[in-house]
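Quarterly update from the structural biology core.
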Amino acid sequence: MQANLRRVHRQQQPFRGRFDELRHFRSIDPWTRLCGGGQEEPCRAKAAAKAGGHDLREVWSKLDEWLSEKKIVAIRHYHANTHQTDDLIETYNPKYEQVVEIIQTRAESPRWVQSLWRKGFRVGVVGSSDHSRNAPYPMAMTGLWLPEAEHTRESVLEGLTSRRTFATNGVKISAFLSASDIDGKETLIMGDEGEIHGPTKLTVMASGTTRIESVEFRRNDDVIHVETVTGEEVSIDYIDENPGPGEHIYWVKVTQFGELEGTRPDWGVAYTSPVWVTTIE
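Predicted structure, tokenized:
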């Protein structure tokens, strides 16, 4: 399936031709962004955010009332002491929330994203430049895997809602994760949820702008394998022999060496959205 998808970075596209960006803004809740793929939806979503005030549940209610189709994606933004309460799951709406921010100007926040997964959020990951627009480089970027030759707002929205995303710290690394059974008959890709019988075979394909240093395979909160590599393009398989029964969240972190000595960032990092695998023994 990866062969039918094409990588797209939000800040700059690796293909020729027109690309329509999503319109986005912060809601009244200062740490959630709403992104729209059509013409009228962003305006209506902005009005819904204003009417809903600081209560995201009221924002969701207004979106349900004022939008006939799901053309809005809500993206929670990490900031100290926000989106971290024990009852946070009560404000989660999977209809609008498919991705959250794992990298932004201030820092990487994988532990925060992991805490959301533990609470029950089914979300992929994105990167956001936040306040670094005047910096000499974009501090964070979102990569999407989209069908070949589809460069529209609608296709980007579909890439976000299907969680075919990865996030970087501004370096144009790409990363693609899939999971399958040993025979390859049951295959899931990043953003998918499904069952796999027996051990889980994980496959990562990554491409860096310079030499890749390592690939970390993660299951839930644990690093289960680290592969040290030396090339700019890698394809790595790892078999999780005994994941145990039940659901597991598999995701990957890719790290590369710095592009140029003395420039920022002096290393590159990318996180993939997860695959949710229910292991059947």
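Confidence is low (pLDDT under 50) at residues 10-21.
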